[in-house]
Amino acid sequence: MDFNDKLDISDMVKCAKNFEKTLARAFEIEIKHPRVSVDEEDENLFEYRFARSAVIKTFEITVESAWKIMQRWIRINADSAIAQKPKRELFRIARDSGLIADAESWWKFYDGRNKTSHIYFEEIAEEVYAMAKQFVDYLKDFIQRLEQRR
């Protein structure tokens, strides 16, 4: 059985592309309305919040998809007992296996994903939105590393 039979990453890659498109659209809105004040209720603020919410939701879905692929890769290639270990350990094993460069950052992304999927406050939304902007480079690197290990 070859790698493609064991681990299909096509859905995660689709998630990643959708995430990138959503993020690019949010950047367009930020450029269009650079001085959005979170204290003012106007159409620009609504458009900003709408874009931010879309980024956060696709961030949640993409982080979830990526960590599940990471878990499957580890189960197949490095540690078949990964399901019984804490999620934080998953990121350490992924780093040690060369799938990711920085386990702590990935843990922070996963933690950020959890914050908005359970509670939604403006401050948390802004924090996770900023985090999502950073995530795209880590995601691209992860996909590249996965593809190199085929």
Structure, explained:
With 150 residues, the chain is mainly alpha-helical. It has a single domain, classed as Up-down Bundle (Four Helix Bundle (Hemerythrin (Met), subunit A)), CATH 1.20.120.330. It contains six helices and no strands. The termini are close together.
Index terms:
mainly alpha; single chain; Four Helix Bundle (Hemerythrin (Met), subunit A); elongated; 150 residues
* Helix content range: over 70%
Radius of gyration: 17 Å
Query: For this structure, what is the CATH homologous superfamily?
Result: Nucleotidyltransferases  domain 2
Number of DSSP strand runs: 0
CATH level 1 name: Mainly Alpha
Quote the average pLDDT: 87
Provide a quick synopsis of the model.
With 150 residues, the chain is mainly alpha-helical. The protein is built from six helices and no strands. The chain has a single domain, classed as Four Helix Bundle (Hemerythrin (Met), subunit A) (Up-down Bundle), CATH 1.20.120.
Summarize the topology:
Layout: H1 3-6, H2 10-32, H3 43-77, H4 87-96, H5 103-118, H6 122-148
Helix pairs in contact: 2-3, 2-6, 3-4, 3-5, 3-6, 4-5, 5-6
